[in-house]
Amino acid sequence: MTAGNAPGxxxxxxxxxxxxxxxxxxxxxxxxxxxxxxxxxxxxxSSVKKGLPDIIILDRQLPDGDGMEFCRELRRHPxxxxxxxxxxxxxxxxxxxxxxxxxxxxxYLAKPFNPVExxxxxxxxxxxxxxxAEQPATLAAGPLRIEQESRRVFLFQKEVLLRPKEYNLLLxxxxxxxRVLSRHFLLQRAWGLDKExxxxxxxxxxxxxxxxxxxxxxxxxIVSVHSYGFRFDGKSR
Length: 237
Prior knowledge:
The protein is α/β, with parallel strands linked by helices. It folds into 2 domains: 120 residues, Response regulator (Rossmann fold); 95 residues, Winged helix-like DNA-binding domain superfamily/Winged helix DNA-binding domain (Arc Repressor Mutant, subunit A). Helix content is 39%, strand content 22%. The strands form 4 sheets. It has a 5-stranded parallel beta sheet with strand order 2-1-3-6-7, sandwiched between helices. A 4-stranded antiparallel beta sheet has the order 8-9-10-11, with helices on one face. Strand 8 and strand 9 form a beta hairpin. Helix 6 packs across helix 7, helix 6 crosses helix 8 and helix 7 packs across helix 8. It starts with 9 loop residues before the first strand and ends in a 5-residue tail after the last strand.
């Protein structure tokens, strides 16, 4: 599973859960990373032999072993010891976190995770190891503007007050403008990822409806796609 034609840093994702891997592929590709997904340690080792990525996102519980051992292997090898590693795992006890960091991981994020936080952590790691451009502080589409640092939204120069999930949805729409996004994907992006999340996708429709109302006539830029999800048709400046 790979995302081609992406100009950004190379990310190797080692994750056997197809749902989690799919979300990581989508989220990171949307942020212009070149993503390669592997489901086992054997596949990850083969990938590293062919070329070292700029960062590895590594699960611990994999079909053929513990990702911790792969981390140790990389740190012992002179050519691989400096590759950044972010553990993304359901093992979230303090002792697990401490062990991961002591074994050489650059960061440790527990599942369920928020995709926005994960992307921020990846960028923070890469800023320490390579020259990675900052995510634009402001996103704009026609009269709509999002100031990401302050999480403020403006429409025709007037601030629109949004609830956190409404803001997360709108940010996702702008980041993925023109693409059809499934309700499940929007649920993962706005509410955080958990394969056992007990929320109906209907909550997405309700929140989109509320968001449209707050955007007034411009809310029509969020287009419903029958039996699938939504697409944002707002034009960029």
